[in-house]
Amino acid sequence: MTKDDILHDYEHMVSNKILAHCKEDGFPAIENYGITKSDLETYLFEKQALMDSHSNEKVRYTVWGILIVIPVVVLDCFPHKSLPWGDWSIYFGIAIGIVLCLMYEVVSRFIYHRKLTEHYSEKIEKYISDVLNY
């Protein structure tokens, strides 16, 4: 993550807007939403951590590469003549690896959305929405 990415991530975007406008009339007051500044900071930090963990492309590509290679390596341990696909075994290994990648993506997205749903706080999200729409 570069310095520009850090400054433009969700947590900093909300925090910077609050710092820039908190003294202005009409700006949403955190007290009116029944939350504390500590609650908001913790919520933003945890939500940003969830979003960062899901969007780490290096990890995803590494896992995809490993998942594609593992079936090919396993199939390569057997003589080509003993496999039902013969010389086409490598292509079936790659296909199996791609299916594993798709399964990984589905499961990882499901877990990500479940964690976001468990983490969701209506009061804090309402405040954040009002701050961003100010």
What can you see in these coordinates?
It is built from six helices and no strands. The protein is mostly helical and 134 residues long. The chain is rod-shaped. It starts with a helix and ends with a helix. 9% of the residues are buried.
Please supply descriptive tags for the structure shown above.
134 residues; mainly alpha; 6 helices
Write a brief caption for the model.
With 134 residues, this protein is mostly helical.
Termini, distance in Å? 28 Å
Percentage beta strand: under 5%
Rg is 23 Å
Low-confidence regions = none
Task: List the total number of helices.
Answer: 6
Task: Summarize the helices and strands and which ones pair or pack.
Elements: H1 3-7, H2 10-21, H3 37-54, H4 57-76, H5 89-119, H6 122-133
Helix pairs in contact: 2-3, 3-5, 4-5
